[in-house]
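Hello again,

I reread your note about wanting to compare the complex against the isolated chains. To keep things tidy I'm splitting this into two emails, and this first one only covers the full assembly. Below are the input lines as submitted, including protein chains and any nucleic acid or small-molecule components. They are followed by the predicted structure of everything together. The single-chain runs will come separately.
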Amino acid sequence: MIEEYLAELSRELGEVGIRGQLRRRVLAESEDHLRSDADALERFGSPAELANQFAAELGARSSRRAAVSAFAALGAAGIVYALSFVGAAFAGQPAPDTWPLLAQLMLPIVIVAPQVAFVTGALGLVRTLRRREHVLPSAELAVINRRTSVALVSGFVTMAALAILALELRDVSASWWVAVTIAGASVAPPLLVLAGIPVVRASRLRPQVAGDAGDLFDDIGLGRTDPWRFACLVAGGVGLAVFLAAAVQGDPFDGALNGVAEALACLGGFAVLGRYLGLRH
Amino acid sequence: MKGHVDFLLLATLREGPLHGYGVVDRLRGASDGAFDLAEGTVYPALYRLEAAGLLSSKWTTGGGRRRRVYQLTRRGRTELARERKEWKAFSHAVEAVVT
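Full-complex prediction:
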């Protein structure tokens, strides 16, 4: 009977994604418990419920830790990006319309990808900090893991595009800028990959816990409105900020074009990724 | 009881290290059967407390089998003292209202 129970528990643990050392530990402790008392089997609980409880607690803990470590890794990538971005102003680069084609193709990527990385990483962290319960709904864990994953991938894409940009501009930029950018863009990706391992592990857990995933308004806690109206408001604000920054520097026309592009990119991101990242229902 | 499982487990371990079955058995005995958990559910809670640094555990041998024994850490003792203080204040306040 005990052997049958343990075999069933082993299967159920595998079903919810618990394997390896942890599964062996759970089974060893369960066997010791069940053999300590002839009646313990009756009181131990169903294998499916017990496995689900393990996965639910471990899932919440793992997803939270993964989001925090990912944000730290993204912080390091962000420093690399900031150094390169600020340094570019002093690197003697020509106007982008004279750049090699590949460099021109990388430019929108190094503008959009880090914004995606920052926003999704921050939203993953906010949800993690706001929800400290031992167990979270499976749908909510999926949202946290997706936000963390998209943030890390966007960070990696940013670093790759930055390195390609620096290589393409090596003949027309200060050598120190090229060296700093490529060095930084080489150091950050391994940190992002390492931060991705806990996310993959957390995503493998499959607890069944009922509950809603929540949305962006649950994260920001400023009341609730139509999500598309809110997205338009944010996109408009971002576009206006880009325009004003360029206008202050004496280039309102370019600022207007870039502002419109930024606003459209914001709305496009919300449309494509909004439901996947739990920004809207 | 669900909201107080962690507190009860920490309190059960204050007298010394125990394995999972020992924790359940002591809890049942100390409460005269009032706290009778579905016994398997104690393990996710023990793992959670260990991950939080309130317990530590190690493998030993007992009854001819591998046995994982848990004990309070210093942090666990501090947390237990804090929760006992909160519980005393709470139960005192409830007592004052209902009597």
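For quick reference: Residues 99 and 273 of chain A are 31 Å apart (CA to CA).

B.
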